[in-house]
Amino acid sequence: MYRRDFLQQTSLAAAAIALPQALRPFAPSKKSKVRLGFIATGFRGQTHIEEMLKRSDVEIVALADPNPRMISDALKLIEKAGWPKPEIFQNGPNDYLKLLEKSDIDAVFVSSPWEWHLAHGIASMKAGKIVAMEVGGAMQLEDCWTYVNTSEQTKVPIMPLENVCYRRDVMAILNMVRQGLFGEIIHAQGGYEHDLRGVLFNDGQSAYNSGVEFGEKGYSEAAWRTNHYLNRNGELYPTHGLGPVATMLNLNRGNSMIRLSSFSSKSRGLHQYILDHPKGGTSHPNADIEFKQGDVVTTQILCANGETIILTHDTSLQRPYNLGFRVQGTKGIWQDFGWGDPEQGHIYFENQMMHSHRWENTQSWLEQYDHPLWKQNAAAAQSSGHGGMDFFVDNAFIECIKQNKPFPLDVYDLAAWYAITPLSEKSIAQNGAPQEIPDFTNGNWRNRKPIFSVDANY
Ligand SMILES: NC(=O)c1ccc[n+]([C@@H]2O[C@H](COP(=O)([O-])OP(=O)(O)OC[C@H]3O[C@@H](n4cnc5c(N)ncnc54)[C@H](O)[C@@H]3O)[C@@H](O)[C@H]2O)c1
Predict the structure, then answer these.
(1) Mind listing the domains of the chain with CATH numbers?
(2) Model pTM?
(3) Which of 11, 97, 111 to mutate to test the pocket of ligand 1 (most atoms within 8 A of CB)?
């Protein structure tokens, strides 16, 4: 049942891309206000709406989501802030196309399920709307080329909303990398190591830990994300781990990923969760389901300049949250544990630490090398989601549009990061066989200069 639903959803999304759409000429210009549409107003869409409601330089023109509850919750936020009611498009999964026909929208936030990202992103660019794309991984490798080709043809920019690139400790480490404290970077690690069992299943009414249903009977991410675990086996969510180290390794800007190999462990965690949950048990219909996604998936990546990266996807077992970052160079090494608080990490520089072979706690180092962007905006970011990083990623999107500047994370980053998912699936299916990672910049990575947070602007 779930497998059929998943395939139906996926082909529905694919069919939506094929819908004919006239290309609109895109003429970017400086703006004092950015007029916004929101495609998908689920939990993440609502976070972006909340972020925008704090600003005086945006308007919320329209929302599109087929789920009336999500639309209603988003409208409550807008009403509470005293903003005018936006136009609503909630007539089925393709009603977003009507939102895209509106000429009074400059840009859209896309916060939909992964299987919809391509349809939403491509249709938006073809309609001349600048795109803020929530993160995920591609359904198939070709999708990544479709993003690049469409953005190049339409000249409409798209920014992946990888908020972890803006985490305070990550940005302090980036600052230290750029100042040479780690020497030449040799190896990096990151991942998505987050127990999602209580997100992947619920009772269809409340989001977290409330039951063992998913698919049509699930609510929020349980309605769609879990089907990926049922039907796929790979690095399903690469960008939180990869994005931050990509900026440190200058990927697509002086460096490039060239090859990967992935392995998957066996799958036990989700099945066990269903058995152990008070609303589950051995007689629950979901107790017999076999999930294809391995509990721990590791992916090794080789870069053109000789560095290696290891990504870990670990979301089906009990464990505390940790993205597992490690950055290692000829002169220093950093490892984080936790959710980004300054003291949640180890660091070692042999020259400064008298060759002691002992870790120091990160706190004083991260404070000393706090990134100028964070220093300047810490107060503004304080009330924002995910420890403040949501402020920065959304602010970068809006400020770049207003000033008609290139996004710090662009379509080539999106394509390269999203490509990890289908390539890892293929590698796992071929017993770990290496897969070439396409160069989506067509060789231009050699000349493109680092742009992400090179100053204190965004
Ligand atoms: N960057 C982060 O920290 C972060 C955090 C959470 C989620 N996300 C990402 O955000 C995205 C959404 O996740 P979420 O937690 O909001 O999930 P969600 O299930 O709460 O929301 C998804 C919404 O998309 C809507 N939708 C489905 N098909 C649609 C269509 N055809 N047109 C318009 N809307 C449609 C659903 O009705 C739902 O309201 C995912 O890509 C997820 O990976 C990112």
Answers:
(1) 2-161 (3.40.50.720), 165-372+410-446 (3.30.360.10)
(2) 0.96
(3) 111
